[in-house]
Amino acid sequence: MYSLEASARGDLVPSPRRVTSADVWLTWRAAMEQALYGESGFYLRERPSGHFRTSVGASPVFAEAVLRELTAVDEALGRPAVLDLVDVGAGEGRLASGVLAAAPPGLRSRLRVTAVDLAPRPSRLPEEIVWARLVPDAIHGLVIANEWLDNVPVDVVEQTADGPRLVQVNLADGEERLGGRPTEEDLAWLGRWWPMRTAGERAEIGRPRDEAWAAVIARLARGRAIAIDYAHSRDDRPPYGTLAGYRDGATVAPVPDGSCDITAHVALDACADAGRRAGAATTALTTQREALRALGVTGRRPSVEHARDDPRGYLQALARASEEAELIAAEGFGGFGWLAQSRA
Length: 344
Ligand SMILES: C[S@@+](CC[C@H](N)C(=O)[O-])C[C@H]1O[C@@H](n2cnc3c(N)ncnc32)[C@H](O)[C@@H]1O
Description:
Helices cover about 35% and strands about 25% of the residues. By secondary structure, the chain is an alpha/beta fold. The strands form five sheets. Strands 6-5-4-7-12-19-18 form a seven-stranded mixed sheet, sandwiched between helices. Strand 1 (about 1-5) and strand 2 form a beta hairpin. It starts with a strand and ends with a strand. The site of S-adenosylmethionine (SAM) has 17 residues, from helix 3.
């Protein structure tokens, strides 16, 4: 942004604005949008794996489990000539690459893999993977969105004696102040999905996530879409919200200056409802622990006899068991929500 000022020659020329980010207050949704995806925003600049771990980075076992899910979808669709795998919020494209690499030739030759992200295409991505900013239309196959929705910007509100008020944040230091009333649509969302009772309670308005998820379901022609994220449901919303920042592997204050990831847990039950309204025929909402166990990820350790017969194989099996255990640990990744919806 520029202000027009008279130059020494008397012309009107653009000069850098004097307003600094210390003067700028935005609602959290607008601030997150700018800090994460604006010009030189965090996700356009940084590699997510440099700042935090996801299930994808924790172990290749995760991609293998997604491949099993994809195989089940393939069978349900009658092994079509072209089967889609769409990874939304693909980050560095590691999940898409991992599934592609592990797919058997008969499946791989029919796979059309699309990685969707606002970040630029990572280098060294297999060239079969299409990199896109938008979710494609008419998907036949599997959509997977691991830790995408928690990065879709949301507004934060605080309950006052006069009802909910939007929280505004200073872009430079993360200081907060109260702004105006939320829109009628947001108030309706809060009333249905995150009612606040006591002054001082805070909520994150998940409506933009519902809309983002509904847009995915609307683009699913046949198959399944799965959103995996830190989640809460109407019965257990945290009274002060979950807004958090991450940088260099540590939790930091969520300052929207582009220096850190900013995230908030997802009201996956509300997304499920939006998905149903967008055309989902079936819905399953469970935990990653249960979903991965159903896909054969057990964390079971190899037997001691295995150690005697094949010491090297035993050590590999032991390492795999510990990776599996991390992916299904109830206090960690295993506690994530899995929302799976399908269209016939
Ligand atoms: C936490 S990272 C997850 C990366 C990867 N799925 C994983 O599990 O390691 C979230 C990603 O979602 C992307 N993202 C957020 N909003 C998006 C949108 N509207 N469209 C496409 N990608 C988006 C971000 O750029 C970021 O790369």
